Amino acid sequence: xxxxxxxxxxxxxxxxxxxxxxxxxxxxxxxxxxxxxxxxxxxxxxxxxxxxxxxxxxxxxxxxxxxxxxxxxxxxxxxxxxxxxxxxxxxxxxxxxxxxxxxxxxxxxxxxxxxxxxxxxxxxxxxxxxxxxxxxxxxxxxxxxxxxxxxxxxxxxxxxxxxxxxxxxxxxxxxxxxxxxxxxxxxxxxxxxxxxxxxxxxxxxxxxxxxxxxxxxxxxxx
Length: 222
Description:
By secondary structure, the protein is mainly β. It has helices spanning 9-18, 27-32; strands at 71-80, 90-94, 120-124, 130-136, 141-142, 151-152, 155-161, 168-174, 198-199, 202-203, 210-213, 216-218. Strands 1, 4, 10, 11 and 12 form a five-stranded mixed sheet that branches. A five-stranded mixed sheet has the order 3-2-7-8-9, with no helix packed on it. Strands 5-6 form a two-stranded antiparallel ribbon.
């Protein structure tokens, strides 16, 4: 009997992104695929309910001015470790504004808040496990305000939950950000797996906006 040949994490991620549900997702890939690396939730997860938590973080309900910053789209699929879509998963994102400030009472960063930036969004995945948000590229910020050294690179926090699966908290990073190399949080992920958290930009044809694809793999609850 021929032994299964182990496939690298990079190959698994590439194949899952290109051919979900196709014959490429055989036993070898299913055995090799592990959940998206976990990341710290951080101290700035929203704790106060706000009137607008929809998928458009660029426009706040009741306001006429858009958020400042470079507008982007973030889209992806929530999948199990066999590459099957997870329907009805709650995708919760939060992030700093364009100058690196969170809309959170405990953020000591003196940078200005943007009243037109929502900063927090939630959506449930469709039958194909798809989700999407319109937001801005968040600003980096110095860790000196938190009693540490260095900078946090640009990132978006994700928390994904669904009955029958382990809740996953992670972060999405931006390809080409020079601060990634010194970021202490992504450094906690094995070097060969860090690419799974770094989104490479494409262009959305319909809107002409930069599109950052970000698929997330979740493991079933034991």
